């Protein structure tokens, strides 16, 4: 856990959902500036990684959880950001794959998504079948295989003949 000032020093970016910037993605200049300044803090708050949250920080968590109405400009901007992300993901064509697909598309930076991100990625990797070529046997492994085969095979009888 780090103090909230640590997160406020970092700039928030979302190149996945806003590849051309927040302004071109539907946020006003002021909202985009607020999202850039406070987005990292809000993500850290939603993952319970801030050591000294303020009452305002606690309120934004209630806003994200739809337990309270947004009051401050940053809360309003964050709600608009989340709504744009949800709308974009709902309109995006679903990708088909052999792996299990998620139940519903969610924004990349919501409280629920960030909490599941670390475990979800690990589970997906664990469940996916790796596409790895079989390893080549080393000389030592080949020798070991030959020894095992020799133990299992019946012994060959050698007949010595005396030469004249």
From TrEMBL:
- Composition bias (Low complexity) maps to 116-142
Q: What is the species listed in this Swiss-Prot or TrEMBL entry?
A: Cellvibrio japonicus (strain Ueda107)
- Spans annotated as Disordered: 90-164
**Family statement drawn from the similarity comment of this UniProt entry:** Belongs to the MaoP family.
- Please give the name of this protein: Macrodomain Ori protein
């Amino acid at each position: 856990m780090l103090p909230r000032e640590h997160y406020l020093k970092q700039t928030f970016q979302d190149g996945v959902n806003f590849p051309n910037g927040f302004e071109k993605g539907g946020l006003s200049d002021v909202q985009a500036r607020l999202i850039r300044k406070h987005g990292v803090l809000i993500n850290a708050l939603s993952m319970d990684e801030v050591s000294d949250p303020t009452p305002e920080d606690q309120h934004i968590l209630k806003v994200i959880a739809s337990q309270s109405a947004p009051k401050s400009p940053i809360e309003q901007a964050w709600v608009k950001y989340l709504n744009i992300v949800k709308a974009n993901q709902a309109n995006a064509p679903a990708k088909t794959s052999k792996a299990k697909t998620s139940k519903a598309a969610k924004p990349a930076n919501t409280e629920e998504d960030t909490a599941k991100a670390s475990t979800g990625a690990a589970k997906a990797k664990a469940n996916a079948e790796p596409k790895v070529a079989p390893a080549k046997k080393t000389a030592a492994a080949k020798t070991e295989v030959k020894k095992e085969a020799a133990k299992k095979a019946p012994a060959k009888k050698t007949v010595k003949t005396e030469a004249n």
